[in-house]
Specification:
Blueprint: E1 2-3, E2 6-7, H1 8-20, H2 34-57, E3 62-72, E4 75-86, E5 102-105, E6 109-117, E7 138-139, E8 147-148, E9 151-155, E10 158-164, H3 166-169, E11 180-182, E12 196-203, E13 220-224, E14 243-244, E15 253-258, E16 262-279, E17 282-293, E18 304-307, E19 311-320, E20 323-328, H4 329-336, E21 338-340
Parallel strand pairs: 4-6, 14-19
Antiparallel strand pairs: 1-2, 3-4, 5-6, 7-8, 9-10, 9-21, 10-13, 11-12, 12-13, 15-16, 15-18, 16-17, 17-20, 18-19, 19-20
Length: 344
């Protein structure tokens, strides 16, 4: 349905905008095209409707408003409705300001409402306790602050293991095989006991020198208890890595899901980086690293770096105010004797 050049869906969208922007000028200062005049007139009239609706829009338990097909008995009816998302549906008799079954909108007449129960909405944090454990969530050795679970792997042919950095799971090589691994990590409230998901299985020892840049990876693997998972599906990506690629080139777009910055994207700038970093045991020089535009922050260490086709290309481990750096995934898998759990 259209009127004055505005579709039914657009009119409903304007109504939603007015919930947050109720003051609309009633007198237009200049001459405008007819369709814009119609749209503005509609906004003015709808503002009054929305204002009358504020008692139930502002009711505790109303999570938000939207537009979608009305659902009756679990089936979409094909009719657009003003959707009212609530924490929990209540009997009308117990509501101080119940949602009306219809709302009168200019030019559209009576538009049905559809009350949809979605539970409480809150910001999702990758720092919370997650079971089964998933790539992208907070993880760490009890002696470190926090890092990211990068991927689910098999270790020496055995399933049920997770991959991250040595400085995340093995306290930069200062830990002992068998030490606890927490999810969430210590800085995110994790404590040994209730938040222990498994044990450190192996890590690649550092050669503490920057002469010759002898190291290739900052990587470790941990076994996970069956009760904690793990699930290989990467948070926000919605599937396991699609495979592994060794193809890395300047200008290539990559992305990762990390504990701190969630799902972010970067561009490879240097594929032949040699770099030296300070670790608890001393200076550690790395060769054959990959530098990207900055798309990470502290706590993202251990994130699996993916190509645009969701194939694993690296393991993020370091960054500066203007750059992010990852180990090549081929080196990580070879040096740890692990295989990535992948999916279609």
């Amino acid at each position: 349905m259209t009127s004055g050049g505005i579709t039914e869906a657009e009119r409903l969208e304007l109504a939603l905008e007015l919930c947050a922007e109720p003051e609309v000028p009633e007198v237009l200062p200049v001459a405008l095209p007819a369709d814009l005049v119609a749209a503005t007139s509609f906004r003015v009239e709808t503002a009054r409707v929305v204002d009358r609706s504020r008692p139930w829009v502002a009711t505790d338990g109303v999570q938000g408003l939207g537009i979608g097909q009305k659902i009756t008995a679990g089936t979409e009816t094909g009719e657009l409705a003003l959707r009212v998302y609530v924490e929990a549906k209540l009997p009308k008799g117990s509501c101080h300001a119940p949602v009306p079954s219809t709302v009168a909108l200019p030019d559209l007449g009576q538009v049905h409402t559809d009350v949809v129960e979605i539970g409480p909405i809150r910001p999702e944090s990758f720092r919370e306790r997650v079971r089964p454990v998933l790539p992208g969530c907070s993880v760490g050795h009890p002696d470190i602050s926090a890092g990211t679970l990068g991927a689910v792997v098999t270790y020496q042919g055995k399933p049920g293991h997770i991959l991250s950095n040595s400085h995340v799971l093995a306290a930069s090589g200062m830990a002992t095989v068998g030490d606890a691994v927490l999810q969430p990590a210590r800085d995110d409230g994790g404590v040994v006991g209730k938040d222990r998901i498994g044990s450190l299985a192996a890590f690649v020892p550092f050669v503490h020198t920057d002469e010759g840049f002898p190291n290739r990876v900052d990587a470790a693997v941990a076994s996970v208890r069956k009760a904690a998972g793990p699930d290989p599906v990467i948070r926000l990506v919605g599937r396991p890595p699609a495979g592994v690629t060794t193809r890395v080139r300047r200008g290539m777009h990559v992305h990762k899901v990390g504990r701190t910055t969630d799902h972010t994207f970067g561009v490879i700038q240097d594929v032949n980086l040699r770099i030296a970093l300070n670790y608890p045991g001393g200076r550690v020089g790395f060769r054959d690293q990959v530098l990207c535009s900055r798309y990470t922050d502290g706590g993202d260490s251990g994130s699996l770096v993916l190509s645009s086709s969701d194939r694993a290309v690296g393991l993020h481990f370091a960054g500066s105010p203007s750059a992010s750096v990852f180990n090549r995934i081929a080196h990580v898998l070879a040096d740890l004797d692990v295989a990535l759990v992948t999916g279609g």
